[in-house]
Amino acid sequence: MGRPASITLEALEAKLTKLRGRWYRLAHHGHGAAGLQLEQLLGLQENNLSVPDWGEFEIKTTRRESATPITLLSKSPKRIGNITWRDFILRYGHTDDAGRLGLNCTVSGTGFNSRGWGLVLSADNQRIDFRYGDDVVAYQPTESLVRALAKKTPNMVLVAVESVLDGSSRRVRYLDAHLLADIREDSVTALVRTGHITFDWRMHLKPDNSVRNHGSVYRIKEHKLPLLFSIRRKLV
Fold it and tell me: How far is the C-alpha of 81 from the C-alpha of 87, rounded, in Å?
């Protein structure tokens, strides 16, 4: 990645305002095509930029009102008693559709799922407990999760996009844009508590009894991504 382009907030707002609401035929195909075209329309060589007095940001696009879960971070919780993942699956796992013993379900802070799993924040919000029925069987220190999220998820300029199929090609228009910065602990805990940040178990035992971990992940509904940041400034 090259050196981020420097642009004032006023100039960025002016560029986005000029683009807002106009339809453009996509010149690229596949995942990320709308974002790549936006970078070119803004005159950027990379998807990162530097705003004086604000810092570095990535340009990202999001589908407006999309409730599709997107991955935030792959991070496994700490197991109570430090048992192996194999023993953890043997004790708390279930048989999946392929007949394998494993853990493959979404866990939320709004209640327990059909497998008996739920996320419960401690009274001081310092850790996220993974409950299996009445028992806390794993936990995630809130501070370490927030630190990992802040490292993984950059400050961003998030631009809502709408797309329509037009014959054999696709057209897009760029809508609202927000400058997002500063992931805070209270934002993360609120999103966990309300079920907007969830956790997906994704592991199973292989025939030789070793563990295949597909990367258990924290996810967020796409249209809730701005709530992860404490600074949310509407640009256009």
Answer: 11
